[in-house]
Design a protein that fits this description.
Blueprint: E1 4-8, H1 11-24, E2 29-33, H2 46-50, H3 64-71, E3 74-76, E4 80-85, E5 90-95, E6 98-103, E7 106-109, E8 113-115, E9 128-129, H4 134-147, E10 151-155, H5 159-169, E11 174-179, H6 190-202, E12 206-209, E13 213-217, E14 222-225, E15 230-232, E16 235-238, E17 242-244, H7 247-251, E18 262-263, E19 275-277, E20 282-285, E21 292-293, H8 298-312, E22 326-330, E23 333-339, H9 342-348, E24 352-360, E25 371-379, E26 385-392, H10 396-408, H11 433-445
Parallel strand pairs: 1-2, 1-7, 2-3, 7-19, 9-16, 10-11, 10-16, 11-12, 18-20
Antiparallel strand pairs: 4-5, 5-6, 8-17, 13-14, 14-15, 20-21, 22-23, 23-26, 24-25, 25-26
Length: 447
């Protein structure tokens, strides 16, 4: 008898696991539920649609009918799963047809996360937005189109905040970023964040750090900051983070981890072996240290989908942990990170050394060379690389890829000097910046 697999939630986790299951199992009955109208879309592309870089809204969406036909999956959108009966192995869901039930042999949970929206006095929902789902994007786009705002406050300086400020400036808005932290983008160290901050100021963005929003007034158009300053904004983007959607798990007595996300084993199983979970809702172990992390990125979700599909077929292939490699664009700068930064290493009590190196991205005499800055953090005794950060206008992605691969392959900081990386004047220098970082690290390690 073929298995009946029910998946709750789409996007990078649920839709991908459905496709992976069908690739390996042509007989299983696969049913995918999503409480929204879209089974898969590009979260990362939404700021660029708002800013006009991506012309067509549909380019961000996966057509649910084509997906269902291609993978032989039953797709039920606008259908919210409200509870799980683990004893009877069935879910309870609600849609336009009322309250219904669906049995399962195996259940996969991919409910994702939700953008946090602090409860702030005076907040006006008509001019204050989060950005995490397609309806959020549509609301922002519609507001800008109808109201032609001239100014925007962005509360939060992480991925969403920094990507949105670039795209709103492209629409000729005056933009102010407000963040409680002493720096933007907490994934990088303070010295690297300073480069981003200087670039934002060069682009005409006002930065207000070490400040929070205490209240709104004037119909939500004025922000009263914790330090007493008041700023005017025709609209506000709240980019203060996300929270895993764990209510379904908690109501079903599925275990949560230290980070507050769902706890899973190396095969992405919950404490109920017939229920798996993946994506933004789960906590996984760090690749380097084994410590629990909640990392909401696309690559881990796609890998976890593959692990689940394989495990359903009897494979013992395990999820190897999350490294946290990420890259984003802020105006003319590319910023890449992988592994841990100094703040986390200090918190974990690790003894480490660091190397920072600035160099041109390719041969200086060849047109278009730009400064690139690379930083690695590594074990002060054996050279194990704990993390890397790269910032520049060209060549950031490939240098970050080398560092991330070195970490995965257990190549030490000193060994970076030995990597034979391709050279031609348009691409690099005879000794790539990665090599120079390696030589510096080798010297510190006494090699």
């Amino acid at each position: 008898m073929s298995k009946k697999i029910v998946i709750v939630g789409g996007v990078g986790g649920g839709a991908t696991v459905a496709a992976q299951i069908r690739r390996l199992d042509k007989e299983a009955e696969v049913i995918l539920f999503d409480k929204g109208n879209y089974i898969a879309f590009s979260n990362c592309g939404m700021p660029y649609y708002i800013g006009g870089v991506v012309d067509e809204r549909d380019d961000l969406l996966v057509n649910k009918n084509k997906f269902a036909e291609k993978y032989g999956v039953t797709v039920k959108t606008n259908s919210e799963v409200v509870s799980i009966d683990r004893g009877q192995k069935q879910i309870h869901y609600k849609n336009e047809n009322g309250s219904q039930y669906e049995s399962y042999n195996k259940l996969v949970l991919a409910p994702g996360a939700s953008a946090t929206k602090p409860s702030i006095e005076g907040l006006n929902d008509e001019r204050t937005f989060t950005l995490h789902l397609i309806p959020d994007m549509d609301a922002i786009y519609s507001y800008i189109t109808k109201n032609k705002p001239q100014s925007c406050a962005i509360v939060g300086a992480g991925f969403v905040g920094l990507e949105m400020v670039e795209n709103l400036k492209a629409l000729d808005m005056d933009c102010t970023i407000v963040d409680r932290s002493p720096q933007v983008m907490k994934l990088v160290d303070a010295d690297m964040a300073e480069m981003i901050q200087d670039h934002l100021k060069e682009k005409g963005v006002r930065l207000i750090l070490n400040e929070g929003v205490q209240s709104f007034f004037d119909n939500g158009s004025t922000l009263n900051l914790s330090g007493g300053e008041k700023i005017q904004a025709d609209m506000t983007i709240l980019a203060t983070g996300i929270k895993p959607n764990t209510k379904l798990a908690e109501d079903s007595s599925l275990e949560l981890g230290e980070t507050g996300a769902m706890k899973v084993n190396e095969f992405m199983q919950t404490n109920d072996p017939d229920i798996y979970a993946l994506g933004d809702v789960v906590e996984t172990n760090d690749y380097m240290t084994g410590s629990p992390r909640h990392v909401a990125l696309a690559w881990p979700a796609h890998r976890q989908a593959y692990i689940i599909a394989r495990h359903l077929q009897g494979s013992s292939l395990a999820y190897g942990g999350t490294q946290g490699s990420a890259i984003f664009k802020v105006f003319d700068l590319d910023v890449g990170v992988t592994g841990y930064n100094k703040a986390v290493l200090d918190q974990l009590g690790f003894n480490y050394s660091e190397v920072t190196h600035e160099q041109l991205s390719h041969a200086g005499y060849y047109p278009g060379a730009e400064k690139i800055c690379i930083k690695i953090l590594f074990d002060e005794n054996d050279g194990t690389i704990y993390g890397g950060q790269v910032i520049g206008k060209e060549g950031v992605d490939k240098r970050l890829a080398v560092i991330a691969t070195a970490m995965k392959g257990k190549i030490t900081a000193g060994d970076l000097a030995e990597l034979e990386l391709a050279y031609a004047p348009p691409y690099s220098s005879p000794k790539d910046p990665i090599n120079i970082v390696g030589y510096k690290a080798a010297g510190m390690l006494g090699e």
